Amino acid sequence: MATETAQQSVPPDVSEHLKTEDRAGLLRAMLMMRGIEERAMTLYRQGKVPGSFYDGYGQEAVSAGATWAMGSRDRLCVLHRDLAAHIIRGVPPARIFAQYMGRSGGVTGGREGNVHFGDRELGCVGMVSMLPDMMLVAAGIAMAFKLRGEQRVAMTWFGDGSTSRGDFHEAMNWAGVQKLPVIFVLENNQYAYSTPVNQQFAVNPVERAAAYGFPGETVDGNDPEAMFEATRKARERALAGDGPTLIEAVTMRMHGHAAHDDMKYVPKEQVEEWRAKDPIDRQVRRVEALGVDVQAMRDEVKAEIEAGVQEALAMPMPDPDSATHQLFADEPALLEDGEAPWSGFARGDAGDEGRTPEAGKA
Amino acid sequence: MPQMGVSVAEGTVVEWRKQPGDWIEADEIIAAISTDKIDTDVEAPATGRVQELIVDVGETVEVGTVLARIATDARPGEAHVSEGQSSAGGTSEAAAAMESSGEAGELKGDTTVREEKAPARGPRRYSPVVMRIAAEHDVDLEQVEGTGRGGRVRKQDVLAYIEQGGGEEPPMHIESPYRPDEPAAAKTRKPHFDAPAAEPGPAPEPAPAAAGSAPLSRMRQAIGARMLQSLQTAATCTTIVEADLIRIEAARATSGFTYLPYIARATVEVLREYPALNATLQDDTVTTYDGVHLGIAVSLGEGGLIVPVIRDAQELSVEGLAKRIKDLAQRARGNALTPDEVRGGSFTITNPGSAGSIMATPVINQPQVAILDTEAVVKRPVVITDELGNDSIAIRPMTYLCMSWDHRALDGVAAAQFLNALRKKLESWPTS
Amino acid sequence: MTYLQAISDAMREEMRADERVFVMGEDIGTFGGAFKVTDGFIDEFGPLRVMDTPLAESGIVGTAIGAAVEGMRPIAEMQFSDFISCGFDQLVNVAGKMYYRQGLSVNITVRLPSGGGFSGGPFHSQNPEAWFMHSPGLKVVAPSTAEDAKGLLISAVRDPNPVVYMEHKHLYRRVKGDVDGGTYETPFTARLAREGEDLVVITYGAMVHTALEATEDLDGASVEVLDLRSLVPLDEEAILASVRKCSKVVIVDEANQTCAAGAQVAALIAERGWEDLDGPVVRVATPDVPIPFSPPLEQAVLPQVDDVREACRELLEY
């Protein structure tokens, strides 16, 4: 099933809602994600990144494609292999590197590590390690939209292992009962740490969606355009008041669970099979066919990353005295709007843009 | 075991002068002790019946160790408390039995004398708030009666103690940190016989063993401050000579006076010959006087001590001096002295010897430069040499003339010469 | 007005005044709640703002968090405080740490009907407040009077942080008091339930009433009763002031003794009130066992008036 879904070597266009600039933008986001994570791994080996390090190598299309479909006023609860979501919403590389290195200029100012972050000013909520807790938070965000009658959508990602926990059920059920405008992206990368999916569930979770009263769709998670199109449609459903959608993004975790994990438990053939389906290679071919200078894009991305590294390295470490500060908020500090680069929003054919009830910026 | 100087950590009982069951007066010698600094006597801190000797002769114990217990509710002539009561073993029953027999004084030495209602109890422990309040108000917690469980001192106890004035005045033990590390200073605390509190001695008085607690009177505070100031100001030395008073005794036989007017008269005469001692020293300036303005320390009993001054004492005879001394003493005890009568002295005589002490080191009455202490007259066998040079042993009324003087103003030779001149004057007193 | 009515009144007034406020929980809408705290609410505010939820405590807390970060002010009801264990992860890991981790404030109020004394048994009688005192980023309040029940709840709803609101079931209809109309806030500070000088009983919630009754006539002793009202933040200065004044302290917890709120109070006094103490800090609390069902067993473990009285008497005599 999952491993058989993505095998186009010459990728056709999947979505008629994408223009060349969107396709190039998706590629750029994925190149940025991979470049940042590779560079961060170097920094990790150099001892500049404390703790452990997690990446989303090979899964770039899942977050890039899904995020590309989301509006500025939509809200995202982002998983740790979804760096492209942060990139698309507008987090600059320097802040990401500083985040990895625990520096004061990082998104969490050193209070959180690796990809455990969300820039609230860009409409993102950082994950917690207890997956899939954010499914409920995303449902709650969608609940607020519904309570206020707003045309907005919440989305969250979670992994195949997350489907075993109670919060998966509680969130799916809750969202189904209340027909909430929420998109659940099941990022099926075949392994939860070392546990393969056949030890995680007996029935593919995408089939469970029907049991909760809403559709589930399996998507090629290594094709950003397929991810975009599935998400776009799910968003349309949500905005139409038809409730949630479960998208199963089938992909492969090409690296270990974290930097320490040599992934011996994964058959080499499986890795090789998925290497041939690399999402970036696929999008490069697509974009090059459209006449985009990909090498120039690569150079530009590389230069931007390197500048970000240098900027981050120049940032101070946090003041130890601040470790006990800001446990409680004195004033409300809520989610704000992020970047939404899809050309469809500019064209006005993408749902709620332009309809901006005052609530949500409370 | 008294603290005989700050560096002394232990002492040995050399002799018990009293045994269980014996009656003892406060300040009467109860034991002789030996430390690495001095061998000395220890006086009883309270009047009563010796109940228990805790430390055996020859035993060496730490400073602060209880040496003996005195039952202060006993009365002379009555049978002493039972053995069972005196060996209270630490149970509450024993404590109750002890209480029923009255409060007991514990003899621990002059800085650590303490009374305990329940002598068998371990050392008292205090709660943090009690200790803090005590520190803030200079309260000696040993003086505070506890009303809590097992006699525990509670916060309200120490607050009540302060409210009744207990804590506002310096506790009696406050002097101990200032005590010079000299054995003599700590040891020759003067018994005050006719006037227990009248002696301006250098050592602090132990709390009467079973008397409970009371704030220091204003006068005691003033005396304490003056004595302390004197010791801190003067370079105090004490010189002693022995005098044979057989001629004075003969003179007294007809006059009926005490020794004091004779000694006063002799002192005045000798001071005229040694003006360096009839002097005051203030701000590096020594002032000598033509006339002798003689201070006489008068005990006011528990009220303290006052030193009225006989101006131009050289103009008075023995009879005149006797009359003036009697008059001043009476008026002092009646609070009838005028301010002018208690200042301007140039030399002072203190006379606690009538209570039986034989030697002391008085504290100089500032700003004077010397003070003469007259002690008890005691019959002693002495060697007498006649005009032909023949020696014989005779029984004579002997006394020690002890004089403290300020080494800043004079030297030891001058002091010794003065005292020898005084001795000769007394020993050659004309017989009528 | 009863304690229970004061809680209802607080929510009703806040919902009228602020459209961001809504209530959610199991059986709270049509049924009006297991304790009828939201009785009639659905008629006034409709089913969206008086939300009957699935039977899912993690879901209740988690979706409340989501609504809050989007600007709503949900009041989530646990049917019994015991059930919060099912929502523990969302409350402790998501809500409690959100602002510290990423500067995103979580304005939720979680109402926990707590406490025993009526044969509720091991799963309807707990006092789990200490779990949340130990979890950074959560505020914990526990009113003992009707007036405070209303004011503290309104303060909780308006506080931009997650607030765990402990409402004691035993007080619902037993405690009455004058309560102001409209809305008012009660600060998260302690309250002197009774002034005294000889000894202070420090407690909160239902035990405030136990303490007041136990010390009303204690051989003429002047006994202070300090109602903490707020456990996080803990009003340390009020505690230390009482200790300074009284010097003898009895701390009463209805919760299980180990690491209870009172343990923190005792630790605070040991650290910062040491020199004011005139005796050991005495604690009266429920032993570390589940709350049993049968009345004699339950009364044996929950602190009773006589337990507190004896503890005070012993300490006074110390």
Question: What do you see in this structure?
Answer:
The complex is a heterotrimer of chains A (362), B (432) and C (318). Chain A is of the alpha/beta class and 362 residues long. Chain A contains 12 helices and 8 strands. Chain A has helices at 20-45, 60-68, 83-89, 93-100, 133-148, 166-178, 205-212, 224-239, 268-275, 279-289, 294-313, 343-347, and strands at 75-78, 124-126, 154-159, 182-188, 191-192, 195-196, 216-220, 245-250. The longest helix of chain A has 26 residues, at 20-45. With 432 residues, chain B is of the alpha+beta class. Chain B has 10 helices and 20 strands. Chain B has helices spanning 83-86, 92-100, 128-136, 155-163, 183-187, 218-233, 246-255, 259-273, 318-333, 412-427, and strands at residues 10-16, 23-24, 29-34, 39-43, 48-53, 60-62, 68-71, 104-107, 114-116, 236-244, 279-282, 285-288, 294-296, 298-299, 305-306, 309-310, 347-350, 370-374, 378-385, 391-406. In chain B, a hairpin with a 2-residue loop joins strand 11 (279-282) and strand 12. In chain B, helix 8 (259-273) packs across helix 10 (412-427). Chain C contains 11 helices and 12 strands. Chain C has helices at 3-17, 41-49, 57-69, 88-102, 129-133, 146-158, 206-214, 236-246, 261-272, 295-301, 305-317, and strands at 21-25, 50-52, 73-77, 109-114, 139-141, 163-168, 191-194, 199-203, 223-227, 230-232, 249-256, 282-286.
